[in-house]
Amino acid sequence: MNTDFPAACSGALCLCTILLSHFIILANGESQIACGKRAVTIRTSQSRIVGGRDAVEGAWPWQVSLQVTNKRAHVCGATVISQWWLLSAAHCFPSTNGFNNKNQWRAVMGLRDLSIHAKWTITRKIAVLILHEQYNDIQNDIAVLKVDRAIGFADYIRAACLPKPGKFHIEKWNHCHVTGWGLMEQNGAPARILQEAAVKLIPLETCQQVNWYGSRINDKMICAGFAGGGIDACQGDSGGPLSCQLKGTDRFYVVGVVSWGQGCAQRFKPGVYTSTSTYGDWIEQKTGILISQSEDSGVEFEIDNGDAGTESLTGKQSVPPTVPNGLVKPISLVRRNTPGRATPLLNLIIISYHFYISCCS
Fold this sequence. Notes:
Helix content: 10-25%
CATH architecture of one domain: Beta Barrel
Shape: globular
Order of helices and strands: HEEEEEEEEEHEEEEHH
Strand order of the largest sheet: 8-9-10-13-12-11
CATH class of one domain: Mainly Beta
Number of strands: 13
């Protein structure tokens, strides 16, 4: 039997194969958006939140504004870590004013100016709210939130990478920034435009010195800022990300969650962050997200199906009624985007088959 194809047909098949491969890439491209990568080019900032600088549109596409639903007012920050899950601080959800109720909250992504929703800005309700079971004052200050609908990734909305579970190693990271809409200065006014601050990671031993924070700092926390103060997160930045680049890569990882500090930008009193690598196993357990074990630049973000995380706050979590004044940074009440959807493999095969028949028959 002769299995040779005419030259014209071979050319057509070749063209069809190329077009089909591009079609599949486009159809499934959203699942291949890499975590921790920006779609825009940003110069490294040496600015600060306290008295600082406006972030460029798209500079921090994983930044979330957590808002009280009935007032639509920004209260805390959070980080997009998958299409279904956000990462924040447990102290943002005190039981005293009902903020431990997921129905009190909404998450806004793709936002820079709190007063202006761009065409790519999206809002999600909170379906599940999980605080760490041993959260107490400044200890274990971490929470995860599952949204009610998948988050569609585009240029201005993306997920940050999560570091490998285990001990935090300060020498692995550089170009660290803290971001948020918190106060521009201690006891000052909150920001309307997203602010960014370039901060330095401070060794644990330094932060544990008596004239710094002493024994209040443990290895589940990260200190970041400057000995002389002047640059820091502040009230309203709580729950937001401390984003650092893994050395040797261009990816940002959320290595810390804004947790507490004594005042804002004071000498020897830098910002204190919950270490996400320390709680990596907890995050995996609660969300079902498989955190990369390799931490190399080849990691791609894969769409998760949102099946994990069936726990809810009601009846399962213990939330202390108050946080210590003057120590914890309390909550202050003080372009294009299409909602994401994973393309089912069967549908993709069927569509590809019809495309092949129409093109090549």
